[in-house]
Design brief:
Elements: E1 13-20, H1 24-35, E2 40-43, H2 53-57, E3 62-63, H3 68-79, H4 86-96, H5 99-105, E4 110-112, E5 135-138, H6 147-156, E6 160-163, E7 168-173, E8 180-187, E9 190-202, H7 211-217, E10 225-226, H8 235-242, E11 247-248, E12 257-259, H9 272-275, E13 284-287, E14 305-308, E15 311-314, E16 321-326, H10 327-331, H11 344-349, H12 358-363, E17 367-369, H13 372-378, H14 385-399, E18 419-428, E19 434-435, E20 442-444, E21 450-456, H15 472-490
Parallel strand pairs: 1-2, 1-9, 2-6, 9-21, 10-18
Antiparallel strand pairs: 3-5, 4-5, 7-8, 8-9, 11-19, 12-18, 13-16, 14-15, 16-18, 17-18, 20-21
Length: about 500
């Protein structure tokens, strides 16, 4: 019998599997394990009622590919120069075709997105294999749909022990065998040891709320704020690294976009003039720290990626950035659409933006000045920069085309003052990087060997290395959650 040094550990609770994170990946892992007869403890950082991670506040679509061959071809093309091992591509491609079957098996009602709803579905139609893409959601509502509610009910109707406000802090590893034996959780300041008799599965998302990790790993953005769950702070990455895990895809993320971030709220506000199909009246441009435009403000990105010279790169966001607009746009209605379709601020915070923008003006979220020269000074921009930018914009509007950045929406000139500004920050839904996993969903070391009894699923070390297909993250949560659960449950209990 293998000797293990566990005599000094006091276990506060035990189960076959300990799953860290109650989002889409944690739900798929826990449901699959419970269906196989395994006992499960699930730890989540959020208070009860705020669980769900990014799955809860995304548009809640998931990917179900039509053929494994097409899916493998498309994923290889998405990865581009950042290759992923072929066995990973093949297992992903096979499992992604089974998402609808799995959802049906737990009581779901898969409905395919209609053409033109939340995009046409295929994010990169020019890539080979793209015709395999099919985007689904549960139930009859797309956007803030019932997908998360169905998943949460499927978890809570099964014998799964959920511990809220109890983030995983440290993995417990046997020094002799290197096996992961459990997790140290922290419930309101009290440390608890959770024994995992068969394995630990990390499903606790990325690092989109860890500014130090953002500076270290994401290029081109000095800071970034999420529109997703504020509880994703890279805990799983840190815990896996402490055990020698390799990392991959750390420079890839679903962004950036541009949004308002204020101290009073943990996540960003999407400005309607930038992100929504409704086109407010009046003039609007976005400028960088030099007071000049740098992009098509009604940007056509593919989850933050823009094409440059035949390649795709993250959109440039020179900080600080300001959305500059005139009185006509200020008067046209609220700058923010709070309808709960997606995003933490919309769905969970539920902030009600004033219909005339005056409450936000009083809060200082919107700056104003009677002239562009005075607004320039208030924003500490170079003298004369805003006047030059607005004059140039008005000339382009008179011509009926944006010769500088090819913007084709809201081609309306600025009127007379007063003028307004909203500071914008880089924003994203999620990061893709984390501990590298293999085709069995095991977390591996730099030499490719697995750390025994340690698994992962979801955005914590996602398979997406370069380009990203919308709904792919939740689809991957389901697919690798099932893979992780099946392989962990099949392990022989160590005690």
């Amino acid at each position: 019998m293998t000797q293990r040094n566990t005599q000094s550990i006091h276990w506060d609770a035990e189960a076959d599997l300990v799953v860290v994170g109650f989002g889409g990946a944690g739900a798929a892992t826990s449901i699959t394990a419970a269906e196989a007869g395994a006992s499960v403890i699930m730890l989540d950082k959020a208070p009860e009622g705020q669980e769900g991670g990014n799955t809860r506040v995304a548009a809640q679509g998931y990917l179900n590919t039509s053929t494994p061959e097409g899916a493998a071809t498309y994923l290889k093309a998405l990865c581009g120069p950042y290759t992923v091992p072929d066995d990973m591509i093949q297992v992903w491609a096979k499992e992604m075709c089974l998402n609808n079957d799995w959802l049906k098996s737990i009581g779901g009602d898969p409905q395919e997105h209609q053409h033109g709803t939340h995009g046409t579905g295929i994010e990169f139609p020019e890539l080979p294999g793209s015709d395999c893409v099919h985007k689904f959601h549960h139930g009859d509502i797309l956007g803030y749909s019932k997908t998360w509610e169905m998943l949460a009910e499927a978890v809570k109707s099964r014998p799964i022990d959920i511990r809220y406000e109890c983030p995983g802090q440290k993995l417990i590893q046997d020094p002799l065998t290197q096996e992961v034996l459990g997790v140290v959780g922290n419930h309101r300041g009290k440390k608890l040891n959770f024994k995992a008799k068969k394995g630990v599965v990390l499903t606790c998302g990325g690092f989109e709320n860890n500014q130090e990790m953002i500076r270290n790993y994401l290029t081109g953005i000095p800071y970034c704020y999420t529109s997703g769950s504020p509880f994703n702070e890279g805990d799983g990455i840190r815990m896996a690294m402490e055990l020698g895990a390799d990392l991959w895809h750390m420079n890839n993320f679903a962004g950036p976009s541009m949004a308002l971030k204020v101290p009073e709220y943990p996540t960003t506000f999407s400005m309607i003039a930038l992100h929504f199909s409704h086109e407010p009246k009046g003039g609007m441009v976005v400028v960088g720290p030099d007071g000049k435009r740098f992009t098509d403000e009604k940007y056509k990105t593919r989850h933050g990626k823009v094409e440059q010279n035949g390649k795709w790169y993250a959109m440039r966001t020179p900080c600080p950035m300001y959305m500059i607009f005139d009185q006509a746009m200020f008067n046209d209605g609220p700058l923010y659409d709070g309808k709960p379709t997606h995003g933490w601020t919309q769905i969970m915070s539920g902030y009600r933006w004033s219909p005339d923008n005056k409450a936000e003006l009083a809060k200082g979220w919107i700056k104003t000045a009677p002239t562009l020269a005075e607004l320039t000074q208030k924003l500490n921009l170079p003298a004369g920069s805003l006047e030059g930018t607005v004059n140039r914009w008005n000339e382009l509007c008179a011509k009926g085309r944006d010769d500088d950045f090819a913007r084709d929406k809201m081609l309306q000139p600025f009127g007379s003052g007063p003028f307004y500004a909203v500071e914008l920050s880089p924003s994203m839904l999620n990061t893709q990087g984390g501990p590298r996993r293999n085709a069995r969903a095991q977390i591996v070391r730099p030499d490719g060997t697995p750390i025994p009894r340690l698994y992962s699923a979801g955005e914590l070390g996602s398979i997406f290395s370069y380009l990203y297909q919308g709904t792919g993250n939740i689809g991957e949560c389901f697919a690798f959650g099932r893979i992780a659960a099946r392989n962990a449950v099949a392990d022989k209990a160590w005690c």
